[in-house]
Specification:
The structure holds two protein chains of two kinds. Chain A is an all-beta fold. Chain A has strands spanning 4-7, 10-13, 19-25, 32-38, 44-51, 57-58, 67-73, 76-81, 90-97, 106-107, 111-115. The radius of gyration of chain A is 13 Å and the shape is globular. In chain B, 34% of the residues are buried. The chains are: A mainly beta, B mainly beta.
Chain lengths: 116, 111
């Protein structure tokens, strides 16, 4: 099956610094990738939809200047958390669709961000 | 905005007992998907239902889509310890490309 990787799996950073998270589709091309945030024991909240070669579409309430998304190629999307604060600590998960109209989303293993 | 709710929030059962989680949407859905997330893991796609009243089975798992396409259920027969995890339903969002996850039902099992 299709595989999506994320790097890093865990990161600890200090308040005020920026952190970049990479999401890669390893064996397929993904025109669309999605970024989710998940707090402990809660559901996945969609943050943004990332389209290759164009600007990301952010969900209501998500600060686009704080969560920078770049989808530079058909296999790579990055999420940069800028000027991180402790309340940004969370589990960030990306997913990718192999083709438009495909039902299945393939999820990456997630990145645990802790801001101290 | 669109909401997808699931009940119960938690379910603790004896191994071998059945388990059911229910998903309800505030709006009619063109389709519904189900995912399973093991503790510490990421969501894994289980199935998609499209037709009104559709029922699909995967071994001990039975998925059903309501006639009005606003609700769905997942039933597990004779649970096993490997069934532990959180089960999410998900429906299309405001645009065709994205999905909105339900609140999830966490299943734990007494061996």
């Amino acid at each position: 099956g299709a595989v999506v990787s994320q790097h890093p799996s865990r990161v600890i950073c200090k308040s005020g610094t920026s952190v970049k998270i990479e999401c890669r589709s390893l064996d397929f091309q993904a025109t669309t990738m999605f970024w989710y945030r998940q707090f402990p024991k809660q559901s996945l909240m969609l943050m943004a939809t990332s389209n290759e070669g164009s600007k990301a579409t952010y969900e209501q309430g998500v600060e686009k200047d704080k969560f920078l998304i770049n989808h530079a190629s058909l296999t790579l999307s990055t999420l940069t958390v800028t000027s991180a604060h402790p309340e940004d600590s969370s589990f960030y998960i990306c997913s990718a669709r192999e083709a438009a109209g495909e039902a299945e989303q393939y999820f990456g293993p997630g990145t645990r961000l802790t801001v101290t | 905005g669109q909401q997808v709710m699931q009940i119960p929030q938690y379910q603790h059962v004896q191994e071998g007992e059945d388990f059911t989680t229910y998903c309800n949407s505030s709006t009619t859905l063109s389709n519904i998907q189900w995912y399973k997330q093991r503790p510490g893991g990421h969501p894994v796609f289980l199935i998609q239902l499209v037709k009104s009243g559709e029922v699909k089975k995967q071994k001990r798992l039975t998925f059903q889509f309501g006639e009005a396409k606003k609700n769905s259920s997942l039933h597990i027969t004779a649970t096993q310890t490997t069934d532990v995890g959180t089960y999410f339903c998900a429906g299309p969002g405001s645009s065709a490309s994205k999905i909105i996850f339900g609140s999830g039902t966490r299943l734990s099992i007494r061996p």
